[in-house]
Structure formats: structure tokens, C-alpha cells
Design a protein that fits this description.
Shape of chain A: elongated
Distance between the termini of chain A: 51 Å
Radius of gyration of chain A: 30 Å
Structural class of chain A: alpha+beta
Order of helices and strands of chain A: HEEEEEEEEHEHEHEHE
CATH architecture of the largest domain in chain A: 2-Layer Sandwich
Number of helices of chain B: 5
Strand content of chain B: 35-45%
Largest interface: A-B, 28 and 44 residues
CATH class of the largest domain in chain B: Mainly Beta
CATH superfamily of the largest domain in chain A: OmpA-like domain
Oligomer: heterodimer
CATH class of the largest domain in chain A: Alpha Beta
Largest sheet of chain B: 6 strands, mixed
Amino acid sequence: MNKAMKQARRLVVPIAVFAAVLMLGACGKKPVKTAPPPPPSPPAGPSASLSANPNSVAKGEAATLTWETTNATDVQIDGIGPVNPTGSRQVTPADSITYRLIAKGAGGTQEATARVTVTAATPPPPVQTAPSATEEQMFNQSIKDISFGYDSYAISSDQQGNIQASAQFLAQHPGIHFSVEGHCDERGSTEYNLALGDNRANSVKNALVQAGVAADRIRTISYGKEKPFCSEHTEDCWQQNRRGHFVYQK
Amino acid sequence: MKNAYKYSLTLAAFIFLASVVSYSQEDWIRTGTGLGVEKVRLAAADFKPSSADPRNTALLKAFNDTLWNDLNNAGIFDMVSKSFYPLSSPAVPAEVKFAEWNAPPPSASMLAFGSLGVTVDSMTVQGWLDDVKNPQSAQVLAKQYQDKPTTDNARIIAHKFADEIIFRLGGGIQGIAESKIVFISSRSGHKEVWMMDYDGANQTPVSKQGSISLSPRISPDSSRIAYSSVTSAGGWQLQMYSLELGRAVSFPRFSGTNVSPAWAPDGNRIAFSSSQSGDPEIYVADSSGRNLKRVTTSPGPDVSPCWNPKTGAQIAFVSGRSGLPQIFTMEADGTNAQRMTDQGYSVSPAWSPNGQFLAFSWMRKYGPGAPGAQDIYIMDIVNKQWVQLTHDGGRNDFPSWSPDGRHIVFQSTRSGSEQVWTMLADGSIPKQLTTSGGNTQANWSWK
């Protein structure tokens, strides 16, 4: 069954490539056919430039678009419409947006783009929300997942450094609560992997408790092989899935 | 062509291997799975309409297909191909021409026949089984059924009639045509509990947890389904669904990971794995969840318990206490633990209804670089002799026995995705039951 499918796929790929080549060839020929006989002196191609100032605004604030074109008879900006060959305009985009200017002239078409990034609503008192956000960020940066050998829930010596570093960070941030998820690779049975994942989560918890972290800060849950990080059937991927994964909770 | 050649080679190799396996080994599977009887050559004529109602055509199609499949699936009949049948088939006993059925080409010994007809709001089915070798007293079975004219009812009546024939000709074995299979399907986007007829018909959703649900096990009286789900607040918890009430009923929560419930044959107790002590161990409780008692004490995973359905006194389970997971048995109170498998990675034990065999999933060679074939095996619990049942590639897991002990439902990736299959308990006649989404962890009802 599998072999037959592989063979079929082997056939399909060259056919698809061949078809693509045919189509590309057809596209390439078309303009040649419709192009007029070479003009005696081709008109100069248009040029175009577009800029936004400032290029990053808070939501609700305005930015100024400025543009310049030459040798263009028809100038448009997507989302704004036809505009003068040279000019400027105020815009107040709701979300981050890339403005695209198209200048068409006898000598061809030229495009220019400018991006305005819209940041989230103005954060007036940056003092209050910042620490908790950075605490979670710091947690995610400082705490490394613990990886396991196959069918093992023992914390190997090369993971002890991670445990100690995590314990140190957690001692400095005593308000953080978190959970440890036990994960397994896709091989073996669903039920056994749930039990094994539970052992893994508890191994990590116990190691942290031994290193001085209060047990009531740590929740454990097993996901067995239900929520893999990586879904390929390779040893590399399996190793990534055999882990105790930390999730920040408050 | 190449595939056909390869297949015939494999088949030849298999036949060769089968013939060198000692007779004593073959005997024990055959006795064990009740296949000792010689196959009866059975003809099943298409039932005929007994009224002029236009609904008859569709109902007869459902009825005839279901009856044929049931008799064919039973594995105890040599079914006479319909192409050998005489041109006219009987609708009533007076129309049976014994010589035509008994002589070649059909050479049948038994003939099932009858009629189905709708009048107003009622469907009547009359079915007979005749011993066509014995015209003097031919009638073995005569049955009449009546119900509302729906295709579901036509299928149910066909199942009932098939079970009567199997019971009569199979030496008293109970038919399984009315049994059910519960399983996990991801087709809705979440892994939920589903249920279907034993032949894969009527696949219907049961649970609506919206998270991840696993390990459904149906109670011996088919009134409840125990399973486990991941809950937002409390991790993995056992759930109890009442098929009579059509909804989940309350069940106590425990700390830790609570998974893989299993019913005792009396329906009053369940065993399951819980890590409430900090380590996954087997617990036994009343089916209400009360009177909880821990029965294993080894560090490492202890999971997937399964009662001996014959005695209700032993539990088979999977333990990682000695390294890779192996199958163990113990008394239901936790004493006398014995390791059954001696190597590889062994999981998912299922005890046969007669108490004699364990079916389980085994990677006999497991580890980095090993081919990792995972197949269904059965083992005689007394002498630990085993036989491999699946050989067709893919990962094969979660066997569960049919009520008559002659079929096994399991999951396999051989078709490219995880699907539920059935086979006879000697490994023959594999049949795929599901196709939509991923389908796993099938559990066959007890009756």
C-alpha cells in the first residue's frame, strides 16, 4: 500500500514539475507576442519614492506620508486612490500597514512602499503593568525545560544545571507560581505515556523542592503523547518531546 | 503486479511458517478461541418481499447485507457464494427445493431464508434455518420479528436472527451481532468518546468534554462508560457516563493523574491508575468511586489495569518497575504480582472472556535503532506461551475481546492513520471499521 503510494508520488512529482515548466514557458512568451515593434527611442521609465514620518505611531495617532515621482502620468496609493505626482498626506491607520505607491508612465511602472507600525493603545502608567509582564518574560527566559532519556523519568546529570538555575531564579522571585507538564514521545501506548509523563512532571517538581522551592508553588500535569512539540517521526523530534515543560501561572 | 507478487511471497512464507509451528501450539489457540468445530457450509438466500410496499426495497437491502456480514464475520461458517445459488430462492419453507441447495454447485448443508414486508406502519420479518441435507425434518429455526419500518430496525432484526443461527450452529456460543464498541475519535476536532455497532455501523458521539478524553471502558451490563478526561482545574480525572440517562454522572475527583479505568466483571468495582500519592499506582474502588484502596506500591508507572473477567479475582496491568513497560498479573488485592512478558515494550493487556489468555501489544525489540514493529499477541496465562496475531505492519495497539472470545478489536496505523480494526482471535480476516479522523482505544462491550 505504502509502496504503491510512494511510487505514485514519484510519478506525480515529475509530472507536476513538467507542467509547471510548460506553464512558465507559456507565460514568458506572451508579452513577446503582444509587444509592439521596438520603438525608435524608448521614453524614460518613471521613478518613485514613498516615506512615512514617523514610521511607528501609537493607535489613534497620525503619520505623514510623503512621496515623489518623475516621468509618471498615473500615480496611485493603495487604500488612498489617485494622488498628485508629488505630495504628502496625513494618515491614521487602525493597524500596522504597508502603503504601496504605484507610478505608471509611458516608460513603464514603478512601485514604492512605506510601512507604518501601529503600537497597542497608549500605555499611560508604564510602572504598573510592566513588572508582571517582564516577570513572565524573565520566567520564560530563565527557566529551561528538562529533557529526558527514552522511557526514563530520572533527571540526568546533564540536566542538574538547569534545575539549579531554575531554583535560583525561583528563589529570587518567590511570588511566581507555575506548572510542570510531563511530555513523552509518540512511541508506545497512550496510557503508559500518561503515567510516564506524570512521573516526569513529579521528578522535576521533586528536584525543585529539594533545591528549596516551596511545593505549593508547583502544579504538575501529564500530557503523555497528547500534545507533542514536534510531530516528525525522528529521534531528534522524539528527544524534543521527552520533556518537563514549565508554564508560568502568575 | 509487483505488490501482488510480494504479497503472494509473504503469504507463502506465512503458510510455510504456519506449517512448521507445532500442532500442539496451533491446538491451544483453536480450543482457546472456540474454533475447534468444523465449519458448517451455510447458504444465506436474500430475503424476499412479502408485501407490495415501496419501502421494502431499501429495508431488504439493509437486512440482507447485515445478515450476510454477520454470518460471514462469525468465522464459524463456510459461506456459500451467492453466485452458486439456484435462480429462485424460497420465501417460505414450502418453497425450499432441498436437492437444488444440497447438490453441487452450492453443496450447502444449511440454508437461511425468509421474507420481509411492510404493511402500514409495521415491518414483519420471518426467518427460517433449514437443514437441507435432511428434508424429513429440515426445520432448525423459525423466527418472526416485528418493528417500525426503519433501516436501523431492519439491521437490528438481521443481527438478532444472525445471533440465533450462530447460537444454534456454533455449539452454543453467544453471537456478537448485537454487541457494541466504544472508542476514541478525533473527528470532531477533540478526542471524544464514540460508540458504534460491532460491524462499524452507527458511529455516534457520546462525550462532549471539549478537551482530551481517553480510555473508554463499557460496564459489564452496558449501562455506563468510564473514561478519563483532562479538566481545566484538576488535570486528568475519571468520568462516568450513563448510557441510560444519556449524560455524565458525578464521580469523585482525586489529585494527580487519574486514567485507564477498568470494570470488574460484577460491575460493582473499578480499577484505575492514579498518581495521588505522587507516583502512578493501581487503585481499586467501588464503581461509585468510594472505598478507594491502593493495590500496588512500586515506584514508576503502574497503569492499564484489566480484570480477569472469568474469576474477577486477578488484575493484569502494565508496570515500568523493572525498566521498559511489561505486563504483570496480581491478585485483585495487590498480592502475588507476577511478570508475564520477558522483553521489549509490552502494553495494553486485555484478558479473554474465558480467563485463559491475555491479548496485548508488544514491541519485542525496542530501543534506539530497533525497527519498532508493534503487534498484537496473545499469551496463555498458565504457561506464558505466546502467538503473534498481526503481521501487517504499522503500530497495532489496544486489543479488546469480543463477548464470545473469538474476535479482537484493536487499533492499527497500517492504513496510514490510526483506525479501529477487528480480526478473528487467530489473526485472520482483518477488517477496518473506521475511516473518519483518528480512531483509537476501542473497547468491546461484554455482551
